[in-house]
Amino acid sequence: MKTYVVIGLGRFGSEIARQLCMLGAEVLAMDVQEHLVQQVANDVTHAVVGDARDKEVLKGLGVRNFDCAVIAIGDDLSASVLAAMNLQELGIHYIVCKAHDETHRRVLERLGVNRVVIPEKEHAQRLSRSLYSHNVLDYIELSDAYGIVDMPAPKEWMGKTLKEINVHVKLGVSIIAIKNGKKTTIAPGGAFTIQEGDILSVLGDSLSLEKVQKL
User: Fold this and answer.
1) What is the mean pLDDT of the chain?
2) I need a labelling partner for 199 at 20 to 30 A (CA). Which of 64, 80, 104, 145 fits?
């Protein structure tokens, strides 16, 4: 079982903690505000009141034994920086940190934080892609260059096999899953025939995905 410590239980942090726990992870959630801790106490493995700026508090909670730490303190740059430094010194191998803006992001990246997210910006990018491309049902950004698009199968692909379509060669993308109703086929083979109602999960770089979206 994977173990996570989530620091900061505002809207972003509390939702991350709950979702991780729902996925089967062990989650320690902490915040300096008792009422926020109480709000998630029944939804996570452990919930405690504590200040991540104090390394001794983190050490006492045994956070060095966790697989990953998520710092979701929000707008307080100094608090997130101190928390990140403490976690690094305690030996946490993977740290994810929420940033308020690009300046906040750059500071955290210089500290060596493994992943920095700006939730509002990333949500806006994801939504704008869906709105701009009428045939895109969802978009997941994997990196600055790569993503996954969920989209209905184009009409011209109906009745054809994946081998016939050959999207990897023709478009530079890969179809990693196909869903139709409640049935989902993961990593479909070349003999798979596209049917009406199929929803394709397409993996590729940004330029290749743009081509697919125009079909």
Assistant:
1) 86
2) 145
